[in-house]
Amino acid sequence: MNTSTCTPLNKKLFEHTILPALYILVFVVGLVLNVWGMKSLLHNWKKLRSINILVLNLGLADMLYLLNLPFLVMYYLQGNKWIFGDEFCKVTRFCYNLNLYGSIGFLTCISVYRYLAVVHPMRVMGKLTTTHSVVISVIIWILVSVQSLPDMFFPKTYPNGSKCFDTTSYEHIESYLDYTIAWTFVGFCIPFVTIVGCYGHVTVVICRSNMMKKDQKRQILKLMALVILLFSLCYAPYHIFKNLSLYSRVLISQTTCPEWDSAVFIAHQVTRGLVSLHNALNPLVYLCLYEEMVSQFRQLLRGGHQIFSRCFKSKSSSVPVSQTAQEAGSDL
User: Domain spanning 12-303 has what CATH number?
Assistant: First the structure.
């Protein structure tokens, strides 16, 4: 393969510095918020509705990904040297796909639930039970697993196991692009169109309704804004530039170097970081659905602020002692 016409790209800044730093941030924030959210959800289980089954599964999907982040951080900090073997590389990437498309699936179902509750409240009253939510959750996990399973049959490492590709090697890039396009349509485009249609109708109903309280309207609008933000900021750019990056690699494998290759590479690296943020933003769904958790979240923030303040005061109080002693000694 002749790629001499292509300008070599500097990947170290993104993959060895920015990406692991962002992954560390997402791991810490996402782990704290998801553990808190799931704990609060289980604590208030009897007070909540059947939709909490979907929210709980959304949290489980996030945890599935967060527990794999330390291995990816180590991988990128070591200069893209994978030391955990080919099989675990595939497991890590499989868990990533389960998280990403599982999150999209559960957010879509949560949005449909809200749509039915707002637009058709009398039709669904008493009909959406916990059993329905459990069955829907199982179906989502099965569909996402079937959708993600073919990815594991593509090579993810070099023969010496030194890499752990998030896509695959150049030798299989054309077939992988076909798979990813189909994957994008089923796993992202269909859910996105469904959510836009649901929330478009919900917006019309809310604007025309005189029976709904302002607090209810505000709660629904907050959830709508959060889901649209997740799709606009995290999911949509990632899928667009992932497919463009794969197409660029297909052209390079055919000895054609596109002029936009560098720009697409940079954009793809940025969107890889942005899509990981959904694990830290998803717990905000708890706050949009359950008002009683807002006060608990504020208590969590106050507790964290108090711990940080105590640590800061303890450090600042220990420093002036030595400084005072030095200043006193210099005055003698």
Answer: 1.20.1070.10
